[in-house]
C-alpha cells in the first residue's frame, strides 16, 4: 500500500509545471450552463448475470435462515426476559463501534448495502456456524475426558475468524472494485466482527449474566452480573473481536490493491492466520490464569501483548486514513497536466479540513445545490484517484477489465465536469478567468487580463473554467485520460452538464 513515487515536497512545483493546454478561454460565467434541474449524473449500473443473481439470492437466504436459527436458539436457551435484557445491553456499544469504522471511511464511503451485508453476516451467519461447531467439539472433548478450555483455545479461534472473514471475502471476489485498499478491509472486516460480538454478547449478558443470576439468587443478582459482564466484556475488552478480524482485513486490503497473484493469495491467508493466533492467545490467557492460580498471568498478557497491538492497529488505521486522502495529490496531477483539473482543486482534496472548506465555499456561492455538487465532486475525484492508482499498479490484466476501467474513467470525468457546473464561475469575489493546463488567465475589474501561477497552498478550488486541451499527445509516462483505451476524436467539453 505504499505509493510507487512519493509526492514532492513542493506541491506547486509538481502540480503547476505542466505544458500549456490552450489559449485563454473567452468564456465568462454567463456562458456556463445553468444549474441542472435534475439529479447529478450517476454511473450506469452494471447488469448482473444470472450467476451473480443466483449468488445474491443464495446469500440472502443463508443470512435469513441463520438469523431465524439464532433467534430460536437464543430464545430457547435464555428465555424471553433474559433474551430481551441481553439484546438491550449488547446493542448499547454497537453505534459507537460502527461510528469508529465509518469515521475511517470518510474519504470514499462504501455503499451502505455492503456495510450492512458485512454486519449481518457476522451477526447471524458467523455466529450460527461458530455456535454449531463449538458445541459439537465441546461435546466431543467432554466425551474424551478433555478439558472444555480446549474448545476456546483450539476450535473457537479457527471457526470464528474464518466465518467472520467469509463475508468480506465474498465482497472481494464479486465486488473487487469496491475495495480501495486496507482501509476498506478494516471497515468490512471490522463491521463483521462488531456484528458477531453483538450476538455473542447477548449470550453472555443474557445467559451467563442475567439468567444464571436469577436462577441462583434472584433478579438483583442477575442485574449485578449483567453489569459486571458489561464492564468487563464491553467497556474494557469490547475491542477484542474487531482487533482480531482487522488482521484479516489488512490481508484482504493488500490483496485488493496488488497485481501479484502470489500476494493476492498469501496476504489474506497470512492475515487470517494472524487473526486466529491472536484470538487463540486471547482465549488462552484466562485458562492459564485459572490453571496456575495466578490472575496476573492474564493481566500481564492483556497489558503487555494485546493493548500494544490494539494501539498499533489504531495508529495504522489513522495513518491509512490520511494516506487515502493524500492519494489524490499523487495521482490526479495526471489530469491537471491533461487540462481536466486545476491545481487548487486537487490540493483541496488532500485532507478532510480542506474538503470541508471547499464545501463551505460551495454553499456560499451556490447554496445547498452547490454543497451537494461539491460532495459529489469530491467523491468522484476520490474514485478517480483510486482508479488511476489501480492503473499504475496494473490491477486490470484482462482486456475486458481494462476496457471497463477506461469506461469508468470516462464516466467519472464526465461526472466531475457536471458537478463543477454547479459552482464554477459563480463567486462574484473572484476574477473571471480560465485554466489552460499551465497557469491561470484572469480578467480583473479594470479590464486587464494577465496570467497568474497556481498558488503554493490553495485551500478551496479557484472557480475558473477549463480551457479545452489540444489534440497533441500528452507528455509524461502515463498518457492521456483513458490511456487504457483510444482517445476520443475531440476533447470532452468541460462545463457540459
Structure report:
- The structure is a single chain.
- With 497 residues, the chain is an all-alpha fold.
- Helix content is 67%, strand content 3%.
- It contains 15 helices and four strands.
- The two termini are 35 Å apart.
- Residues 1-45 and 467-497 have low confidence and may be disordered.
List keywords for this structure.
497 residues, mainly alpha, four-stranded mixed β-sheet, 15 helices, 3% strand, disordered N terminus, disordered C terminus
Question: Can you describe this structure in just a few lines?
Answer:
It is built from 15 helices and four strands. By secondary structure, it is mainly alpha-helical. It has a four-stranded mixed β-sheet, with no helix packed on it.
User: What is the N-to-C succession of helices and strands?
Assistant: HHHHHHHHHHHHHHHEEEE
Uncertain segments are: 1-45, 467-497
Number of beta strands: 4
The fraction of residues in strands falls at under 5%
Overall outline:
elongated
Task: Give a quick account of the main beta sheet: strands, pairing sense, barrel closure.
Answer: 4 strands, mixed
SSE layout and pairing:
Layout: H1 11-16, H2 50-78, H3 80-91, H4 94-104, H5 112-143, H6 149-174, H7 182-216, H8 219-236, H9 240-256, H10 261-292, H11 296-331, H12 333-337, H13 343-347, H14 352-393, H15 399-423, E1 432-435, E2 440-443, E3 449-452, E4 465-466
Parallel strand pairs: 1-4
Antiparallel strand pairs: 1-2, 2-3
Amino acid at each position: 500500500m505504499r505509493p510507487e513515487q512519493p509526492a514532492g515536497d513542493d506541491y506547486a512545483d509538481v502540480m503547476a509545471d505542466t505544458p500549456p493546454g490552450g489559449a485563454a478561454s473567452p468564456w465568462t460565467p454567463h456562458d456556463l450552463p445553468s444549474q441542472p434541474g435534475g439529479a447529478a449524473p450517476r454511473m450506469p449500473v452494471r447488469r448482473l448475470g444470472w450467476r451473480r443473481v443466483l449468488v445474491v439470492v443464495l446469500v440472502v437466504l443463508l443470512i435469513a435462515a441463520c438469523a431465524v436459527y439464532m433467534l430460536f436458539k437464543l430464545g430457547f436457551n435464555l428465555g424471553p426476559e433474559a433474551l430481551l435484557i441481553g439484546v438491550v445491553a449488547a446493542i448499547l456499544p454497537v453505534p459507537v463501534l460502527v461510528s469508529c469504522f465509518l469515521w475511517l471511511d470518510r474519504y470514499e464511503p462504501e455503499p451502505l448495502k455492503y456495510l450492512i451485508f458485512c454486519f449481518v453476516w457476522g451477526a447471524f451467519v458467523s455466529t450460527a456456524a461458530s455456535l454449531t461447531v463449538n458445541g459439537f467439539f465441546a461435546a466431543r472433548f467432554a466425551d474424551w475426558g478433555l478439558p472444555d478450555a480446549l474448545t476456546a483455545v483450539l476450535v473457537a479461534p479457527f471457526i470464528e475468524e474464518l466465518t467472520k472473514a467469509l463475508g468480506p471475502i465474498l465482497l472481494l471476489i464479486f465486488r473487487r472494485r469496491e475495495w480501495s485498499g486496507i482501509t476498506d478491509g478494516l471497515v468490512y472486516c471490522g463491521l463483521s466482527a462488531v456484528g458477531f460480538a453483538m450476538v455473542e454478547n447477548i449470550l453472555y449478558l443474557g445467559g451467563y449474566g442475567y439468567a444464571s443470576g436469577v436462577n441462583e439468587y434472584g433478579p438483583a443478582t442477575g442485574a449485578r452480573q449483567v453489569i459486571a459482564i458489561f464492564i468487563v466484556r464491553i467497556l474494557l475488552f469490547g475491542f477484542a473481536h474487531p482487533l482480531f478480524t482487522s488482521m484479516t482485513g489488512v490481508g484482504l486490503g493488500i490483496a485488493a490493491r496488488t497485481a501479484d497473484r502470489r500476494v493476492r493469495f498469501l496476504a489474506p491467508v497470512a492475515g487470517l492466520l494472524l487473526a486466529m493466533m491472536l484470538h487463540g492467545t486471547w482465549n488462552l490467557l484466562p485458562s492459564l490464569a485459572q490453571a496456575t492460580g495466578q490472575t496476573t498471568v492474564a493481566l500481564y498478557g492483556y497489558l503487555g501483548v494485546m493493548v500494544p497491538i490494539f494501539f498499533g492497529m489504531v495508529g495504522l488505521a489513522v495513518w491509512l486514513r490520511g494516506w487515502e486522502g493524500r492519494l489524490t495529490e499523487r495521482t490526479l496531477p495526471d489530469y491537471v497536466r491533461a487540462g481536466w483539473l486545476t491545481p487548487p482543486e486537487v490540493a483541496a482534496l488532500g485532507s478532510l479540513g480542506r474538503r470541508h472548506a471547499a464545501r463551505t465555499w460551495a454553499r456560499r456561492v451556490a447554496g445547498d445545490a452547490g454543497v451537494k455538487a461539491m460532495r459529489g465532486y469530491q467523491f468522484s475525484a476520490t474514485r478517480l484517484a483510486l482508479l488511476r492508482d489501480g492503473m499504475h499498479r496494473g490491477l486490470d490484466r484482462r482486456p475486458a477489465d481494462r476496457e471497463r476501467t477506461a469506461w469508468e474513467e470516462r464516466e467519472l470525468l464526465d461526472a466531475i465536469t457536471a458537478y463543477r457546473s454547479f459552482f464554477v464561475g459563480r463567486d462574484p469575489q473572484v476574477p473571471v478567468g480560465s485554466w489552460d493546463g499551465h497557469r491561470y488567465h484572469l480578467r480583473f475589474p479594470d479590464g486587464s487580463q494577465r496570467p497568474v501561477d497556481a498558488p503554493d497552498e490553495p485551500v478551496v478550488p479557484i472557480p475558473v473554467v477549463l480551457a479545452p486541451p489540444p489534440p497533441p499527445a500528452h507528455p509524461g509516462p502515463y498518457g492521456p485520460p483513458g490511456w487504457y483505451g483510444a482517445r476520443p476524436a475531440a476533447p470532452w467539453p468541460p462545463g457540459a452538464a
